[in-house]
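Long-time lurker. I teach an intro course on protein structure, and each term I like to show students one example going from raw sequence to a predicted 3D structure in token notation. This year I'd like something fresh instead of my usual example. Would anyone be willing to generate the tokens for the chain below so I can use it in lecture? Attribution to the forum is fine with me.
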Amino acid sequence: MKLKDLQLNCALTEKHSLYYIYTALSKPVNQPGIYQFSAMGLLDDRQIDSYNSEEQRKIPKQQWMKEKMQEDYWEKFREYADEELRNGTPPDVHVFAKRSISDKSKLKLTCLATGFYPKDIFLTIRKDLTSLPEDEVESTGIRPNHDESVQLRKSVEINEDEKAEYDCFVSHRTLKEPVIVKWGHQEKTTESLTAAYTEEPVLEKGSAAGRENAGEAPDSCATLFIFSLSLICFNMRTRVTTKIFALLCVFLLYGTLPSLRAEKHSLYYIYTALSKPVNQPGIYQFSAMGLLDDRQIDSYNSEEQRKIPKQQWMKEKMQEDYWEKGTLSRKSKEQWFNVNVDILMKRMRHNESDLHVLQWRHGCEVERERDEVKFSKGISEYGYDGENLLYFDIEESQWVAAVDAAVPTKRKWDNVPILNQYTKGYLEKECVDWLNKFREYGNEHLRNTSPPDVHVFAKRSIRDKTKLKLTCLVSGFYPKDMTLVMRKYCTSLPEDEIESTGIRPNHDETLQLRKSVEINENEKSEYDCFVSHRTFKEPVIAQWDSVTA
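-- Reply from a regular --
Happy to contribute to a lecture. Here you go:
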């Protein structure tokens, strides 16, 4: 296929959209950023205005909306947006090569285009100027960046001696001509990272099936915290899916960014039970999962009814006996949850025709400084349909009732000192032992994987054309403990001067982090990006060379 033909292929029909989304909650939830009523306008999936019940005013979310909108601005979104795009900047394109994890004799070539908008882009990996079939290429799909721009990454595994035959072809409306980048001098193919250019109880206790020898607490001390949003959506399917998704997100995304001084690690188990089947793919009446550092390590659901590994190292390291016992324990918990969902519905006088959700979260967190691992936090808490019921106060070794209905349960459980002693001991010791064991197995696997990629690029500031915006992107790392510092004369810049995306997930369970700073153009040579991660033999220090117009 010739270059001219590819350019013609890029001239695809553009698609544009304008949507308005309104969301109302049945009651206030007293959570930052979540309002009882909110509305937004979306032009090509980019937010252009907003309204919420707290501020009670409609406000622009794009500078061109603020500057341009008159009485008739509703008919001119596309015109104004195009004007902004004409003054925008093209995407950054980076290529890098790494050893294949599955076959060390092969290379994995990756092309990354980032920072572009709108999302219509043509990115293809070619061999001898011929585009590879899409079924041979791994793609992330279009993914959002922190600044409302988007990114796209594609990869392919090849024989090492064929690398010179490949290139990456990128075309976008903001580019004057297509960008064609080859894998060559821009990166090195090494095992290390290279900077490319780039009871009276509320819950009745069921019969225990014994301890689950998988780092999980026994049935007798099951606890849960839950936060639920009952969103009013367009149909039953959306409502159910959104409700479950909201519940899981609270648990999965709970936490803070890692400290630069101490590594933080966690092991949590999450159980979710619905009051009735919802007949939606991937949503089960009962499910459970284990999370090590927010990465799923095992799963169980009421359809398959077996505990299965979700990481290759879990499958290799844990014996068959581990999975058999884990399956029996989770079957027992499934029965326990099914009974208690019914009990809670009756106790709360809830309609059986409505969907109700019962969840349980428990586990521990540790901090590691050098070779010393210290217990940091233990959590055992539960609730029902968005209301906190009970949580275990590990300092006082007693249960705390969050609602009046849970007070009798708190009193009864606190009258069984051995239960509270075991709960405290599990959180502080047994859970930590399992966390360390799993981390040891996981780290062994990490030592056999490639380190992340570091890219630096400089672009003209949109706000001030006399300044440069320097960006440092680290992608493909795990675990999330990452040190990325932007420096001037080898001195770290204060965090309040830096724009950061925070740690964000990639499509392959690895993570990425991007930081930027605006500077005077003549000072570019004074800055560098310092990156340190456990998979590096030594820190990477990258400097900015070229500037994207």
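Some talking points for your students: The longest strand covers residues 357-369. The chain has four domains: 3-86, 88-189, 219-446, 451-549.
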